[in-house]
Amino acid sequence: MKTLQMTLSNKKNNFIPYIMAGDHEKGLEGLKETIQLLEQAGSSAIEIGVPFSDPVADGPVIEQAGLRALARNVSLSSILETLKTIDTKVPLVIMTYFNPVYQFGIEKFVAALEKTPVKGLIIPDLPKEHEDYIKPFINDKDICLVPLVSLTTPLSRQKELVADAEGFIYAVAINGVTGKENAYSNQLDQHLKALSSLTDVPVLTGFGISTLSDVDRFNKVSSGVIVGSKIVRDLHEGKENEVIKFIENAINF
Amino acid sequence: MTYNQPNNKGFYGQFGGQFVPETLMTAVKQLEEAYVDSKKDPLFQAELKELLKDYVGRENPLYYAKRLTEYAGGAKIYLKREDLNHTGAHKINNALGQVLLAKKMGKNKVIAETGAGQHGVASATAAALFGMECTIYMGEEDVKRQSLNVFRMELLGAKVHSVTDGSRVLKDAVNAALRAWVAQVEDTHYVMGSVLGPHPFPQIVRDYQAVIGQEARAQFLEKENKLPDALVACVGGGSNSMGLFYPFVNDESVAMYGVEAAGLGIDTPHHAATITKGRPGVLHGTLMDVLQDENGQMLEAFSISAGLDYPGIGPEHSYFNAVGRAKYVDITDEEALEGFKILSRTEGIIPALESSHAIAYAVKLAKELGADKSMIVCLSGRGDKDVVQVKERLEAEKEVKK
After folding, report:
1. Residue A100's closest chain B neighbor by CA?
2. DSSP run (H or E) holding B323
3. Could you say which of B76, B80, B91, B107 is catalytic?
4. Does the keyword Lyase apply (chain B)?
5. Whole-number Å distance between alpha carbons of B135 and B159
6. Which of A156, B16, B39, B193 could form a disulfide with B11 if both were Cys (CB 3.0 to 4.6 A apart)?
7. Could you tell me the pTM of the whole model?
8. Neighbours of B105 (CB within 10 A)
9. B283 and A99: CB-CB below 8 Å?
């Protein structure tokens, strides 16, 4: 079993924060201290966002963070260089749109990842149909391509998606972009429970999670949560203590 | 060998595909199924055909532009008169087809992106005709540049959503429309306006626009008893050009020229010459040639014509370029303005600024080809929407000269 899945399988109430690489007053120089802060607060893994000019799966908070990073000339290549210098015990997961990776070169990208603590990839615009762009290069590496399952994914397809899933399964909790709040359907808990029952791979819930009661709700029906926009907003506003407190509370339910 | 693209995964050679979030996968698969069914459904085809005839006014003429031909001094120039369609451009061919498809899928709401507003107007028109709720996403900059089209869409009962993200033009309107589609995918159809986006959109839009080339081919054969030597059409996303080109794809003797917008010049940063200056990348759900920086971030496109102001080009055009089936050339803002004036004066037809790019290139090409040759130019839209913009520009130029 690859490291990412092992780490998340071993516990309940997993918490994965998302940060945008380079969205820091020190630019990429600040990435190390943010990762340390999130690690010490008790994160199970940390999602590192790569900025993209056209982030169609993201809401305004993450889009703006990406634009701030791009304004600091942050690129996939400079992020990889920075990650090489970072030492952390928690697995990192890169969240990127496909084009920056495609331009960088897929083989070269995977080779660069091996020199970093990155153990997983989330590529929201690379559906199962196109996983062959990446999968053959990571099959024998300690890197997982995390599948997303949405509320619109029919049961037959859910089964296909989880069949050879590695790392964890990213359950998208709303039909919408990241950071959209208070839109959860009544059937969501049942959907998450049913999805978890299809597989031994941990299911983590994300999109729109911003309160401890959301966290509590999804910890009951899945293996944990991914929190992006709230973390990105708080860090941007200098509320590090608020982030630490939130994570500490989230993992202690 | 008979042309047979895309393949069953929605690829044209290396281009195309379905690079969309999982939330949209079910919708694009459902669309693919509904589209395949509709092709075999005689009632659907009959309804679309009747609408194209009685509502759009097809078939429209293939017109021999005698005075433009004389002006150019070379090959005979025929114009395919898409400007005479209801709503004034080729966009209605596709909008009607897709709104019918939406109805077939039981979806009662449609959304669409628009740049210059022509596709927005066409979608709002089709939605009005079927009593559907319609929201149009348009970049804030374009809302300002094309306020008359905004008013038209509102008259037709559509809601126009001004997009304030990014550079506030067509690319950003597509982002906003895709996000809106994700949020309401279960009851809403996204009417893609060009041969762009995830499969099956590039194929659907091509097939609905192919009526342009089908008519033009038959009309030309009837008038000249042979095939034309060349086809010329402007290319932004590439729907009018693909509509003209596709029915000729197996006619090897027919050369195809896609005219991209060179803006202020392809050696400046201000152009929309995607094939000439771009390289393959993934944007808005498809792998195609795009204008991007070394790190894969999209660049802003620039053109005097809002309808060509897009940093990508349909995947099938990228394929045509890669295999050499079509040639892609550039016309600057200045040259397009000249084309706008020339067609107005020689033929009494005011072309859209988009189509003016095709006219300007046709004049050059006619000279090169010589008098015994002939070509069809797609006059994709009429220029009424651009008259104010051109007037302001020409007046400003006069001021500078004084």
Report:
1. B296
2. helix B315-323
3. B91
4. yes
5. 5
6. B16
7. 0.96
8. 18
9. yes
